[in-house]
């Protein structure tokens, strides 16, 4: 059984799997790349995690996630920057442990508004400022910081960066090999400017990650679990994928789905469903593939 | 008891009130203007509704709502256009029945994607095309069509127009006295371009309605009821109001809140709470007010 050669399974899609089981389920579904999360890595410790990743033979496509850098008080801000430096080091170690073609990409979720604070512009400015404080460390570690614009429904409490254009505005002062953006279908599919901004991101060499999933309706009660499997929702994924590829993105394509039904499946069944829908909808195999 | 002279109570904020009770609750809270909905008007019939409105002495600030013009099949599309022509006529009649300063504004909600259709761009183009079919009728009736950009979380199933900039792009080919836009805080507060687009809308004379409310977290299970009373959430309303006024908007300011707790209050208590929070947060009274 072999999945699309550019498919990467983001660990969040099989959230309950400990690291070893996630690596196994991914490989057994014929998938050759994985997007890791810090929590299951921390559960076994970084040294053990790098061993398991190396033994798996899988590529590592990204580490989720750093960020949460909108705090306005000094102590919380300093702590967040330190935490991000640790995340940068983990990203480098895990990508190094992964198979050839791994990407040292740390996904950054901006964070929401501080409590009782309505100054959205101020929070957005602090995100850019914080990235400025992290760039040197990231560059030294060979890690690309990937700013993830989040769906506007999360602007208040999770991610104040709301569009791909805004993420690129934030990234632009920094070197393109160190600060890029995430193109996550769920977060950006609705944006009237999305195709222009994908082209802009590609022209700058800043597409650090492309993640696919789908937007399902009705919106589930827990809006954090509102994602569906590709083909189950309303996103024109073939067109989005075409735009990302046309913009020059050559990396792995992650499937990242927060969905209770998917989480309730046996891990390998979930991985196989994802691989099948990825081929059918998100990224049909090229005719020239073996 | 007297509320802010520019406050209008949108009927959706006291959703369960029949028309007469809504008019009474509004007036008894010292509010001098009301935003009407078609359903409670239809419940008593348009002739009776105009009588009740005239007897109330209130201004009418808008009628909600027309639109739902994204269908791709011919019959559904024709039916939607006919329905919108009826809504235009109702808008004219109700504004005429209202007190001096009433506004003949019909709020248009675009509608979502047709079933199993992922062509968002096509749906958006059909909205503009439909408005083109309605403009002459609206102009003849003296009614302003107000395109409402909706929060992107509704893009799939309710409103494919997602930003103020996009609503203005759609309105731009048409006369500014017939096609305008709605600035609804809940829908647009997160937009990095919102202040530029408010200025653009004002410069074109296209702000047909300004609606206030708040974005509360956590997002309630029913995302349609995710609005809070001004001051209970994360929107910087003073800044937004300042921008709308600076852009030259001189009309009534509607409070439109879909919120189960508000709906469960006695109507006049809800209206009074709204009037108080409007003064405190959304639009402090000018010092020159009596």
Automatic annotation (TrEMBL), chains A, B:
Pfam families documented for this protein: AP_endonuc_2 (PF01261)
Gene3D superfamilies membership: Divalent-metal-dependent TIM barrel enzymes
Keyword tags: Isomerase
Domain Xylose isomerase-like TIM barrel: 24-271
GO terms of molecular function: isomerase activity
Top-rank lineage group of the source organism: Bacteria
Protein's name in the database: Xylose isomerase domain-containing protein
